[in-house]
Every structure is written in C-alpha cells, then in structure tokens.
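Subject: Sanity check before I submit

Could someone independently write out the structure tokens for this chain? I want to compare against mine line by line before I put it in a report. The sequence has 451 residues.
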Amino acid sequence: MRHARRRVVRRVTRLAAVGGLLLGGAMVTSAVASEPPAAVIGVPYAAPPSTGDGTGLAARLGASRTGGSWVDAAGRPVVAVTDEKAAAEVERAGARAKVVRHSLDDLTSATATLRSAPRVPGTSWALDYKRNEVVVRGDSTVTAAAWARLTKVADGIGGFVRMERTEGTFTTRLNGAQPILSTAGRCSAGFNVTDGTSDYILTAGHCGPDGSLWFADDRGRRQVGTSLRGSFPGDDYSLVKYDGGRAGKGADVVAVGDGKGVRITGVADPEVGQRVFRSGSTSGLRQGEVTALNATVNYPEGTVTGLIETDVCAEPGDSGGPMFADGIALGVTSGGSGDCTAGGTTFFQPVTKALTELGVKLIVAEQAGGAGAAPAPSASSASPGAASPGTSAPITGETVSTLLGRLTDPRNVGPGLLVIAGSLVALVATRFIRAEQDRKAYRRHYSATWG
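---
Independent answer below. Compare away.
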C-alpha cells in the first residue's frame, strides 16, 4: 500500500507539473495553428494605456497639485487634485476631478519614510489613489512587536497612512516543491523580447540567478535557455536567452489555455482601476483589477519596489507569467498572498521598466493598417511532445482520464486514497470551470486580440 501510494503521488505530481506548463500563460515559441501576421519588434511604451488620459493629465499638472489617477467603473478617467483650479483643468479635458487633501508628493514622501525604517519582512505598502492614502499591510508572519514599531512610524507620518493586517504570507510565486522546470524552481514564461541580435523570455528575477537552466519538460531533457541579466531583490525581472537564439513563430502570442492565445500588440503602464488578466503555468488565466501602483513588498528574500498591486489571484509556479489587457503587455508576476481559492493580493513587475533597464524590446504582432492584431490560436503545430513553455499542445503519455481512473480503481489504492482522489477530481473540475470563465471574460472584453 505504501509503495502504491508513492507511485500515485509521483504520477499526480508529474501530471500537475506538465499540465501546469501546458495550460499556463508562458510565451508560445513554436508555430501557431494558423499562420499569424509577422511578428515585429516593438519599442518601450509602444502603446498608451487604453483606459483614458488620466495619467497624462496628472503628469501635466504635476505631483504637487495631483494625488494620482484611476479609472472608474464606467471606464472614465478620474484625477485626484489638490485645488479647484486644477479640478477645472481636468474637467475641461474631459476627465472627472476629485479634490483631495494630500498630493502625490505627500504620498511618495510617506513611502520614503517607511523605506527608511527598519525593514520588516512580510509587509508591503502602496499608494491608494482612490482613498488618497498609503496603505501598509502586514501578513501573518509579522510579529505584534514588529507591527507595533511600524505602526509608530506610520503614526508619525500622519493620518493618511492606513495600517491593515492580511491573512496568508507575502511570498514570491515560485514553486520549489513540485518537479522543477528550471534549475531554481518552476516558474512561468512571460513575454518574448529581443535585443536585435538574440531573443529572450522576460520573466521574474526571483525565478533563478544568472546561469539557471530552463527546460520545457519536467525531466530536464528539452533545454529552453539560460537565465541572465536578472535583478532581484530591488526589482523582479530577468531574461532567459533561447538556446537557439530565436523565439520562433508565435513569439507574439501568450497562451491562456484551452488551445487559445492572446496576440500581444504593444506595451504600456497600467492605471488604477484598470481591468487586467494574468496567465500562469499553475492557475491558468485569471482576471481582476489594478488596485495600486508603486507598491513595495518586503519578501523574505529582500525588498522589491515600484510594483503593480492587483486583486488577481496567483499561486506558486505562476511567477514570471504575463499580465496584459487588450493585447497590451503590462507586467510579469512577482509575488503576493493567498491563492485562487480564497483570493489574495498579487504584485507585478512593470514591463516598461524591465524593458528600459534591460535594453530590450518587446516582440509584438504586426497591426495591419494600424488596427488591432488579428486573432490567432496558440496551439502548437510542432511535433508531438515538443511543447515549449506555456504552449497548449496536447499532453502526451498518461492522460488526465487515465490517471483519475487509476486513482479511483479499488484494486490499486486503499479507501484513504479514494477520498484523496475524490478531492482531486473536485479540485481539477473547479479550477477548470474557473479558468474557462476567465477565458470567456477576456474574450468578451478584448475580442480583437483573442484567438
């Protein structure tokens, strides 16, 4: 019985790793089923945010007269301003103004004070433009004494710093317990980029130090590339250089599961309130909203600043996966708290900063006549079993139905494992339903880039 249980666990683990890889949101590096428009080389900030001109208005007015901007439920840009004259300018420009007490200068000064205090792992802070506050969060690992010290610092700043305790722990979304797909752990590929000579995968910096090897399978037989030029902590990005030097056809598509993909047409910075989607090798496609910008997270490994905060869930193994909206690349998954059952907070490294710091450009789809890119599927047409990171090619070998059949066969397992098998079936079914709902949500909102 003990040996049978070990065999079942090994099979489940292996299938989970391979299934996560194939259903995840990594870049497709092989040919897509139908011939797509040729990929072209994008540039940093190739496309403005599609949600409005609130960011531009705030930048024009300056940090001393505004308190940030966001997008309301109707999609209209809102700009926080500190005086009536600035409010009038915003209204004339077609946006909505909200008069607030504290300027962006005040908010950023508060975060500088927090950074200068003794570091407390398990904490984060971000600028909450809607409430005109800085929100500080502490996870379950933060002791009462450490929280009290940080609260004292916040009280010294002023009444616009909000302190919150949160369940779970702030961790990078790296999975080191399952069979690994790199020498450091299982992550997700993000977006394909190039320096004009070689092509790379842009992913999270914490996924592995320079020199880490990446594989397209859990047995380490198909090497994809090698990590280099990473930054973590401080930032959270790195490049994986393709062994062959080129990403191949379909380099402008991110897989979202079920044989579908989203064609990437540009890159931009997100806005608070913007609806976004994230894809990863563990939990597939998920949706949510940008809740704050310029977030700082004190992970156990170190502090990362300048992150995008969202309410999109993520789980171990989703690290490095792409966040996007309407075909526009926005971020790569860094870390967070919670999971896709209970929900949580997830942080993303902005793509724009990573491209600038690394000196690379995003590989994007060619847009005919300046219009949005044509939709295209992301199913690989390569040889069977030759799945690249994130492709949605069929799983070869032992299938899901075969595995579940063995799990529920009384001749192979005991009553205890039948309970485990039932739970596994329910979990797989629930996650499939939720992932399918999120794929349909993306298709409804951004049909132009859906394939």
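---
OP: Matches mine. For the report I'm noting this point. The first helix runs from residue 2 to 23.
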